[in-house]
Specification:
Elements: E1 5-8, H1 14-20, E2 27-31, E3 53-58, H2 63-71, E4 76-79, H3 85-91, E5 97-104, E6 122-127, E7 153-155, H4 164-168, E8 175-180, E9 185-187, E10 190-191, H5 193-203
Parallel strand pairs: 1-2, 1-8, 2-3, 3-4, 4-5, 5-6, 6-7, 7-8
Antiparallel strand pairs: 9-10
This protein binds ligand LGQLAAA5.
The ligand O=C(O)c1ccccc1N[C@@H]1O[C@H](COP(=O)(O)O)[C@@H](O)[C@H]1O binds near residues 10, 156 and 181.
Length: about 210
């Protein structure tokens, strides 16, 4: 399998961000969705290595708000609501990756993702839920076998030290990364750095 990208989401506390920035991750996520327990109103003013893409997570947000956050230094935008393909196109800038999230369950119609192709950089497949994400629950990954497109995707939803090895066993070149969140927290928004290091060792086969 190619080098799997690792995204750690839901950061907001300066010391915790600084500690995470020392780890070999690819994306660091900041949740700009007020109803989330991990909500942060602003991108923390902390130096993060250029190798880590600062990612804003939004749910059906005003586009002006997203553009404001991009201007503050985001390299990626993760859209977790019912954002349309046109919305994704309008939010995209030359320097910003677009990750469109979908909650997956047995009712998922893969055909509904087709209009996003050529617009978004990645899909992200998460557990379907009314709160749009951060549930700590995984979905039935067997459903991914029916995913018919070439667009690479991140896997998320309740990833933890027990199920990450199972995620690594998914034989699919389109699986480009893992998104780690609530199962690695000491409290919402504060990550357990030691536990994340253990996950990184598993993922990077160290
Ligand atoms: O984490 C949240 O609170 C959240 C709220 C609304 C939308 C997305 C959110 N986080 C994203 O949810 C997934 C799965 O997280 P978990 O591992 O199940 O806790 C992940 O992509 C986060 O970026």
């Amino acid at each position: 399998m190619n080098h799997l990208k690792i995204k750690v989401c839901g950061m907001r506390e300066p010391a915790n961000i600084q500690a995470l920035a020392l780890l070999p991750i690819d994306y660091m996520g900041f949740i700009f969705y007020e109803k989330s327990a991990r909500y942060t109103p602003n991108l923390p003013n902390i130096s993060i290595p250029a190798s880590i893409k600062k990612t804003g997570v939004f749910v059906n947000a005003e586009q002006a708000m997203i553009h404001k956050k991009i201007a503050q230094g985001l390299q990626a935008v993760q859209l977790h609501g019912q954002e349309s393909p046109m919305y994704c196109e309008q939010v995209k800038t030359q320097r910003t990756e677009i990750i469109k999230a979908f909650g997956i369950d047995t009712s998922t119609s893969w055909e509904s993702l087709a209009p996003y192709m050529g617009i978004v950089d990645y899909f992200l497949f998460d557990t379907s839920s009314p709160q749009h994400g951060g549930t700590g629950r995984s979905f039935n990954w067997e459903l991914l076998k029916a995913y018919p497109y070439d667009v690479p995707y991140f896997l998320s939803g309740g990833l933890d030290l027990v199920n990450i090895p199972n995620a690594l066993a998914i034989k699919d070149e389109r699986l480009i990364g893992l998104d780690i969140n609530s199962k690695f927290e000491v409290e919402p928004g504060i990550k357990d750095i030691d536990k994340l290091q253990k996950a990184l060792k598993i993922i990077r086969h160290e």
